[in-house]
User: Which sequence fits this backbone?
Protein backbone atom coordinates (compact mmCIF):
# COMPACT_ATOMS: atom_id res chain seq x y z
CA UNK A 1 0.00 0.00 0.00
CA UNK A 2 2.83 2.37 0.86
CA UNK A 3 4.57 1.60 -2.43
CA UNK A 4 1.40 2.27 -4.36
CA UNK A 5 0.97 5.69 -2.70
CA UNK A 6 4.60 6.59 -3.41
CA UNK A 7 4.20 5.62 -7.07
CA UNK A 8 1.18 7.88 -7.35
CA UNK A 9 3.07 10.79 -5.73
CA UNK A 10 6.13 10.27 -7.96
CA UNK A 11 4.12 10.03 -11.17
CA UNK A 12 3.88 13.26 -13.28
CA UNK A 13 0.81 15.34 -12.70
CA UNK A 14 -1.78 14.77 -15.42
CA UNK A 15 -2.36 17.74 -17.68
CA UNK A 16 -5.74 19.31 -17.16
CA UNK A 17 -7.91 19.90 -20.16
CA UNK A 18 -8.57 23.60 -19.50
CA UNK A 19 -10.85 25.56 -21.81
CA UNK A 20 -9.41 28.53 -23.66
CA UNK A 21 -11.08 31.83 -22.82
CA UNK A 22 -10.96 33.17 -26.42
CA UNK A 23 -11.93 30.18 -28.52
CA UNK A 24 -13.95 28.25 -25.94
CA UNK A 25 -12.08 25.09 -26.95
CA UNK A 26 -9.83 22.96 -24.83
CA UNK A 27 -6.16 23.79 -24.71
CA UNK A 28 -5.28 20.43 -26.21
CA UNK A 29 -7.52 21.05 -29.24
CA UNK A 30 -6.23 24.60 -29.64
CA UNK A 31 -2.60 23.53 -29.59
CA UNK A 32 -3.30 20.70 -32.03
CA UNK A 33 -5.03 23.13 -34.37
CA UNK A 34 -2.12 25.56 -34.11
CA UNK A 35 0.35 22.81 -34.96
CA UNK A 36 -1.73 21.76 -37.97
CA UNK A 37 -2.00 25.37 -39.17
CA UNK A 38 1.75 25.84 -38.77
CA UNK A 39 2.46 22.69 -40.75
CA UNK A 40 -0.01 23.75 -43.43
CA UNK A 41 1.56 27.20 -43.76
CA UNK A 42 5.04 25.65 -43.91
CA UNK A 43 3.89 23.37 -46.70
CA UNK A 44 2.37 26.26 -48.63
CA UNK A 45 5.58 28.30 -48.26
CA UNK A 46 7.64 25.34 -49.41
CA UNK A 47 5.50 24.84 -52.51
CA UNK A 48 5.56 28.58 -53.24
CA UNK A 49 9.34 28.71 -52.96
CA UNK A 50 9.67 25.65 -55.16
CA UNK A 51 7.43 27.30 -57.78
CA UNK A 52 9.70 30.36 -58.00
CA UNK A 53 11.87 28.93 -60.74
CA UNK A 54 13.00 30.41 -64.00
CA UNK A 55 10.05 30.31 -66.39
CA UNK A 56 10.93 30.28 -70.04
CA UNK A 57 14.50 31.26 -69.05
CA UNK A 58 13.41 34.91 -69.02
CA UNK A 59 11.00 35.70 -66.17
CA UNK A 60 10.79 34.48 -62.59
CA UNK A 61 9.35 35.58 -59.25
CA UNK A 62 11.26 36.38 -56.10
CA UNK A 63 9.32 36.81 -52.86
CA UNK A 64 6.04 36.84 -54.75
CA UNK A 65 6.97 39.79 -57.03
CA UNK A 66 7.72 39.44 -60.76
CA UNK A 67 11.34 40.05 -61.76
CA UNK A 68 12.99 40.23 -65.18
CA UNK A 69 16.28 38.45 -65.86
CA UNK A 70 19.03 39.49 -68.24
CA UNK A 71 20.93 37.18 -70.56
CA UNK A 72 23.40 36.49 -67.76
CA UNK A 73 20.49 35.32 -65.56
CA UNK A 74 20.86 38.29 -63.18
CA UNK A 75 18.09 40.45 -61.79
CA UNK A 76 17.87 43.74 -63.67
CA UNK A 77 15.19 45.34 -61.57
CA UNK A 78 11.75 45.00 -60.12
CA UNK A 79 8.89 45.25 -62.51
CA UNK A 80 5.80 46.92 -61.15
CA UNK A 81 3.70 45.79 -64.10
CA UNK A 82 2.02 42.44 -63.70
CA UNK A 83 3.01 39.87 -66.28
CA UNK A 84 -0.15 38.21 -67.64
CA UNK A 85 1.64 34.91 -68.27
CA UNK A 86 2.41 34.58 -64.57
CA UNK A 87 -1.17 34.99 -63.45
CA UNK A 88 -4.02 32.55 -63.71
CA UNK A 89 -7.46 33.73 -64.67
CA UNK A 90 -9.12 32.07 -61.68
CA UNK A 91 -7.02 33.60 -58.86
CA UNK A 92 -8.34 32.85 -55.40
CA UNK A 93 -8.94 35.71 -52.93
CA UNK A 94 -9.01 34.57 -49.29
CA UNK A 95 -10.84 36.11 -46.39
CA UNK A 96 -7.69 37.72 -44.92
CA UNK A 97 -7.50 40.06 -47.94
CA UNK A 98 -4.32 38.57 -49.39
CA UNK A 99 -4.53 37.30 -52.95
CA UNK A 100 -2.72 34.05 -53.64
CA UNK A 101 -2.07 33.58 -57.33
CA UNK A 102 -1.76 30.29 -59.08
CA UNK A 103 1.30 30.63 -61.26
CA UNK A 104 1.33 29.14 -64.71
CA UNK A 105 4.30 26.95 -65.57
CA UNK A 106 5.05 27.06 -69.32
CA UNK A 107 7.01 23.83 -69.09
CA UNK A 108 3.99 22.12 -67.61
CA UNK A 109 1.80 23.72 -70.30
CA UNK A 110 4.17 22.47 -72.99
CA UNK A 111 4.13 19.00 -71.48
CA UNK A 112 0.32 19.03 -71.46
CA UNK A 113 0.18 20.23 -75.07
CA UNK A 114 2.72 17.60 -76.09
CA UNK A 115 0.67 14.92 -74.33
CA UNK A 116 -2.50 16.11 -76.11
CA UNK A 117 -0.70 16.14 -79.46
CA UNK A 118 0.59 12.62 -78.86
CA UNK A 119 -2.90 11.49 -77.89
CA UNK A 120 -4.35 13.04 -81.04
CA UNK A 121 -1.59 11.45 -83.11
CA UNK A 122 -2.23 8.07 -81.51
CA UNK A 123 -5.97 8.46 -82.08
CA UNK A 124 -5.35 9.37 -85.71
CA UNK A 125 -3.01 6.40 -86.15
CA UNK A 126 -5.55 4.07 -84.55
CA UNK A 127 -8.32 5.41 -86.81
CA UNK A 128 -6.10 5.00 -89.87
CA UNK A 129 -5.26 1.45 -88.82
CA UNK A 130 -8.94 0.69 -88.22
CA UNK A 131 -9.85 1.98 -91.69
CA UNK A 132 -7.07 -0.10 -93.24
CA UNK A 133 -8.31 -3.22 -91.47
CA UNK A 134 -11.89 -2.45 -92.55
CA UNK A 135 -10.79 -2.02 -96.17
CA UNK A 136 -8.81 -5.28 -95.99
CA UNK A 137 -11.84 -7.08 -94.54
CA UNK A 138 -14.13 -5.75 -97.29
CA UNK A 139 -11.61 -6.77 -99.96
CA UNK A 140 -11.45 -10.29 -98.53
CA UNK A 141 -15.24 -10.53 -98.39
CA UNK A 142 -15.49 -9.35 -102.01
CA UNK A 143 -12.89 -11.93 -103.08
CA UNK A 144 -14.71 -14.74 -101.25
CA UNK A 145 -18.07 -13.69 -102.72
CA UNK A 146 -16.56 -13.55 -106.20
CA UNK A 147 -15.14 -17.07 -105.82
CA UNK A 148 -18.51 -18.31 -104.54
CA UNK A 149 -20.32 -16.84 -107.54
CA UNK A 150 -17.73 -18.40 -109.87
CA UNK A 151 -18.36 -21.83 -108.35
CA UNK A 152 -22.11 -21.37 -108.73
CA UNK A 153 -21.63 -20.41 -112.39
CA UNK A 154 -19.51 -23.51 -112.99
CA UNK A 155 -22.17 -25.68 -111.35
CA UNK A 156 -24.83 -24.19 -113.63
CA UNK A 157 -22.69 -24.78 -116.71
CA UNK A 158 -22.02 -28.37 -115.67
CA UNK A 159 -25.72 -28.93 -115.03
CA UNK A 160 -26.58 -27.53 -118.44
CA UNK A 161 -24.01 -29.75 -120.13
CA UNK A 162 -25.34 -32.78 -118.26
CA UNK A 163 -28.90 -31.97 -119.34
CA UNK A 164 -27.79 -31.50 -122.92
CA UNK A 165 -25.92 -34.80 -122.85
CA UNK A 166 -28.96 -36.56 -121.38
CA UNK A 167 -31.19 -35.00 -124.06
CA UNK A 168 -28.84 -36.18 -126.82
CA UNK A 169 -28.82 -39.72 -125.38
CA UNK A 170 -32.62 -39.80 -125.23
CA UNK A 171 -32.80 -38.49 -128.77
CA UNK A 172 -30.39 -41.15 -129.97
CA UNK A 173 -32.46 -43.83 -128.21
CA UNK A 174 -35.60 -42.62 -129.98
CA UNK A 175 -33.82 -42.59 -133.34
CA UNK A 176 -32.55 -46.14 -132.83
CA UNK A 177 -35.99 -47.27 -131.71
CA UNK A 178 -37.58 -45.75 -134.78
CA UNK A 179 -34.98 -47.34 -137.04
CA UNK A 180 -35.54 -50.73 -135.43
CA UNK A 181 -39.29 -50.37 -135.89
CA UNK A 182 -38.88 -49.41 -139.54
CA UNK A 183 -36.58 -52.35 -140.18
CA UNK A 184 -39.03 -54.68 -138.53
CA UNK A 185 -41.92 -53.33 -140.61
CA UNK A 186 -39.86 -53.67 -143.78
CA UNK A 187 -39.27 -57.31 -142.99
CA UNK A 188 -42.97 -57.84 -142.40
CA UNK A 189 -43.75 -55.98 -145.62
CA UNK A 190 -41.43 -58.20 -147.56
CA UNK A 191 -43.07 -61.26 -146.09
CA UNK A 192 -46.53 -59.96 -146.99
CA UNK A 193 -45.36 -59.07 -150.51
CA UNK A 194 -44.05 -62.54 -151.02
CA UNK A 195 -47.30 -64.03 -149.78
CA UNK A 196 -49.39 -61.78 -152.03
CA UNK A 197 -47.31 -62.48 -155.11
CA UNK A 198 -47.55 -66.21 -154.58
CA UNK A 199 -50.03 -67.91 -156.79
CA UNK A 200 -51.17 -70.10 -154.02
CA UNK A 201 -52.36 -67.06 -152.12
CA UNK A 202 -54.69 -65.89 -154.81
CA UNK A 203 -57.91 -66.60 -153.07
CA UNK A 204 -60.72 -64.71 -151.38
CA UNK A 205 -58.26 -63.33 -148.78
CA UNK A 206 -56.00 -61.66 -151.34
CA UNK A 207 -57.82 -58.30 -151.07
CA UNK A 208 -57.29 -58.26 -147.32
CA UNK A 209 -53.54 -58.84 -147.66
CA UNK A 210 -53.28 -56.18 -150.35
CA UNK A 211 -54.91 -53.60 -148.07
CA UNK A 212 -52.50 -54.53 -145.27
CA UNK A 213 -49.54 -54.24 -147.61
CA UNK A 214 -50.62 -50.79 -148.82
CA UNK A 215 -51.23 -49.53 -145.27
CA UNK A 216 -47.80 -50.69 -144.06
CA UNK A 217 -46.09 -49.17 -147.10
CA UNK A 218 -47.80 -45.81 -146.55
CA UNK A 219 -46.81 -45.82 -142.88
CA UNK A 220 -43.18 -46.53 -143.72
CA UNK A 221 -43.07 -43.69 -146.21
CA UNK A 222 -44.33 -41.13 -143.69
Assistant:
Amino acid sequence: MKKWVEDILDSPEPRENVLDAETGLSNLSTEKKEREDALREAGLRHRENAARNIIGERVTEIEGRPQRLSDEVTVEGKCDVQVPDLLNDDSEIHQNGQGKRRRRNPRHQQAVEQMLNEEMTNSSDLETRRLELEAHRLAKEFEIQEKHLGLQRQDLELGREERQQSFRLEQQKLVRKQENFQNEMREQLKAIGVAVSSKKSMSSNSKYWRRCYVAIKVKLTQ
Residues 2-104 form one domain.
